[in-house]
Write a structure and sequence with these properties.
Rossmann fold, seven-stranded parallel beta sheet, three-stranded mixed beta sheet, globular, binds sulfoquinovose-uridine-C1,5'-diphosphate
Length: 416
């Protein structure tokens, strides 16, 4: 199958490309390298050294004997999106090219606006482009479990049966997102659902849990590694906790630490996306998959990291900084996730095994972590309308970060 991956240079996009190639699919990608620039904007870099995209493609050619098609460009430019779809006419599109960080979207008004404008514009361009150039293609759209928030009832997969004042209907489950970023995904979901209804498009909205991990079976060479972020803005909870342990910094479950989220290992997230691609809806349909493996509280993850670190001779401590976010720190959390199981999804490896693997890699890249240790602890505050000064104060040598727009020139480098 010919699959277009938007955001192919990212944390998920790159291993997905490798995974799909390994399964015999043809892969074409789009990226504007904005994540590389934005991670630099907040003074950080990937713990893993990431080659330029041109180099990545060359290594794929060398190792797999296959080519990855590539277009460098911006999803906020209609002419670009339309042109790619017209030339390629993919059978499936995995749309990952969005600003993916909740803290980044909360820095100030400019970062909030950039997040929502870019994310919604890119998705709308894709929907219009599909209608015009490839109406039979299947859109696999990266959403987030965070769209649902943390309601005090079970969370279905997208829709639920409801009875109100004697009448029944099947309705979208209420959304209660927790950041401007997460709200951008809610609005996207509405747009994808509507486009599917009016134009008969096939779409799978993937409510993705928090991803952790550094490797997939296809990453057989350091030159094929994906990026691994650990700073407060771009790193996700478990990845950050392991980086903190390696650095001898306190591990930081925010507030009470009883926030629960659905988590999934990188390689299983790739498995899930592939299953969605390989099993499209048979006709026009908007369907929703809750994509995570198991729910954990951040305290549970912190305890596991401390235990594994101890076996490696490290002795990190846990600290509970006041929660910089506005979120329930203790709550009910029972999302359902049956659709993927129905397609044959099976967890590949246990959480603890993956945690050990991340430790092994991060210990190798310890010097890269050390060089950016000042960007790990949280400064962006949900209650503050402007956290730029706090962010900038972490690294006195760097100027206050402006939002890095998608139109800025990209510099690819080995140290992104
Ligand atoms: N957290 C801590 N300590 C930390 C970092 C995070 O306690 O040092 C807590 C947060 O307060 C939150 C939970 O861990 O309660 C998850 O935070 P996160 O930073 O790991 O993930 P989040 O901001 O929710 O976003 C990430 C990805 C995003 C994806 C989302 C899935 O960046 O792209 O959509 O996970 S979900 O969380 O299910 O919405």
């Amino acid at each position: 199958m010919k699959v277009l991956i938007t955001g192919i240079d990212g944390y998920s996009g790159w291993p997905l490309a490798l995974h799909l190639l390994g399964r015999g699919h043809e892969v074409v990608g789009v990226d504007n390298f904005v994540t590389r620039r934005r991670v630099r904007e907040v003074g950080s870099w990937s713990a893993t050294p990431i080659p330029s995209f041109a180099r990545r493609r060359a290594v794929v050619r060398e190792r797999l004997g296959k080519d990855v098609g590539f277009y460098r460009g911006d999803m906020t430019r209609w002419a670009f999106v339309r042109d790619v779809l017209e030339r390629e006419r993919p059978e499936a599109i995995v749309h990952l090219a969005e600003q993916r960080s909740a803290p980044y979207s909360m820095i100030d008004v400019h970062h909030a606006v950039a997040t929502q404008v870019e994310n919604l514009t890119g998705t709308l361009h894709l929907l219009y482009g599909m209608r015009e150039c490839c109406p039979d293609a299947h859109l696999v759209k990266m959403g987030t479990m965070g769209e649902y928030g943390t309601p005090n009832v079970d969370i279905p997969e997208g829709f639920f049966e409801v009875e109100f004042r004697g009448r029944k209907d099947r309705l979208p489950f209420p959304r209660q997102a927790g950041s401007w970023y997460h709200w951008s995904k809610v609005f996207d979901s509405g747009d994808v659902m509507f486009a599917s209804r009016i134009w008969g498009l096939k779409a799978t909205d993937v409510m993705q849990g928090v991803i952790y991990g550094i490797r997939t079976p296809e990453i057989t060479d350091d030159r094929l590694l994906t990026r691994f972020d650990f700073d407060e803005t771009w790193g996700t909870a478990l990845n950050r906790f392991i980086a903190q342990a390696v650095l001898g910094l306190p591990i930081t479950p925010y507030g009470k630490g009883e926030q629960k989220r659905g988590f999934i290992a990188l390689e299983d997230s790739m498995q899930s996306l592939r299953l969605a691609v390989e099993h499209p809806p048979t006709g026009p349909e908007y369907r929703v998959f809750n994509q995570f493996d198991a729910a954990y509280s951040v305290n549970e993850l912190a305890d596991l990291v401390v235990r594994v670190a101890g076996e490696l001779g490290l002795s990190p401590r846990i600290e509970h900084p006041p929660d910089p976010r506005v979120e329930a720190e203790q709550h009910y959390y029972t999302p359902l996730h049956d659709h993927l199981l129905g397609l044959g999804y099976r967890r590949t490896r246990g959480l603890e095994e993956v945690v050990r693997e991340i430790f092994r890699d991060l210990l190798r890249f310890r010097r890269r972590l050390e060089a950016r240790r000042h960007v790990v602890m949280p400064t962006v505050q949900w209650r503050s309308p402007d956290s730029r000064a706090a962010l900038a104060a972490r690294a006195p040598s760097s100027p206050p970060p402006p939002p890095t727009g998608t139109g800025a020139p990209a510099t690819e480098g080995p140290t992104a």
